[in-house]
């Protein structure tokens, strides 16, 4: 349940804040565990921008 909640939080707070909230001593622990969620969001953002750009070839 903690992991699920933290995964949802990656959509609304930055990774540093999440690290502090979870009590991880090392940023890398948080980043390595939850960066997949961030990568998926970046892909969605890229798709959104491609859809807005009429000159995009993607």
Automatic annotation (TrEMBL):
MF terms (GO), sorted A to Z: DNA binding
Keywords attached to this entry: DNA recombination
Keyword Transmembrane helix appears in the UniProt entry: no
Sequence ranges assigned to domain Tyr recombinase in this UniProt record: 1-40
GO biological process, any: DNA recombination
UniProt KW RNA-binding keyword: no
One Pfam family this sequence matches: Phage_integrase
Protein's name according to its UniProt entry: Tyr recombinase domain-containing protein
Species of provenance: Listeria cornellensis FSL F6-0969
